[in-house]
Amino acid sequence: MVAETLLPSATPVRFVAEDGSRASEHGGYGEPAGDRLKEAYRLMVLGRRFDVQATALTKQGRLAVYPSSAGQEACQVAAALALETRDWLFPTYRDSVALVARGLKPGEVLTLLRGDAHCGYNPVETRVAPQCTPLATQTLHAAGLAHAMQRRGEDAVALALIGDGATSEGDFHEALNFAAVFKAPVVFFVQNNRFAISVPFEKQSAAAALAYKGIGYGMRSEQVDGNDAVAVLAVLGDAVRHAREGKGPVLVEAHTYRIDAHTNADDATRYRDAEEVAKWREADPLKRLETYLKAENLLQDTEIERFAADAEVFAQSVRDTLNAEPELDPLSLFDHVYAEPTRQLEAQRAALAAELEA
Q: What is the pTM of this model?
């Protein structure tokens, strides 16, 4: 294998500049179709309204915690749109918008963050793994499941969403090595939002870009402007095709920014200044895509208004769902520990049932 074929582009792939004008830094990638870009815009509008609503619900005590993905909507939506229904998505705790874009119900998505259960949806039915809180552990799961699907002859791909902080974990490197050796059909998608909680990227890695980590494992890599939805859709679409065709895994790094704090429990003003945040607000992925689509006559004002109205209706449904008190069964703790419960687990379940009865 020629090493040059594995290297990412010298600069992040980009189709649209910060001001919404057309850019020409996209190499040989083809631009996604107009209807696909419009659908991405619709889901980004929906996702941003969902994110704002979830943040508000946290302040009202309806969620225990919520890690906002404001500013990362292009990455979130593109990750969902790049996959077919038969493919698997492996999200982190910050990827709720990606799950909403994939079609999961908001009440199911927010179950973990509400503290009701480890997962509020059926991973097998939705082909979405439980949202992962420990850093990088989902990369191993994605690589292993992708390899298993490959051995079964399934025409499916796994996509693992990762933060920049997760690339400092050993699990990340083990997953990349395993996937590359076995040519597992998996895409590792790093959303480099510049901070691992309060640790800036410059103190995490000395690499010119995280995308360069792929070549060390013999893995094709790419870097993309994570606030350019057109570019992210193009790059991820190509990466998924590459993996599906049996050519091996791909590492994609998206350069983006976390506009809000790490979570509602974090004070981001202690480690970054307002000018930096303001600069990145100017690179807003939603506004950038809207400007571009209007200039290309792919989006009308009436559609913008309709998508915004639909998002408000969706936000109301989120409020209604989260304002209803959940009906929790303590015995459900034992339901999904093993496929076949062990004797010890059955004994523990019986002991809890007796205590509840008493």
A: 0.95
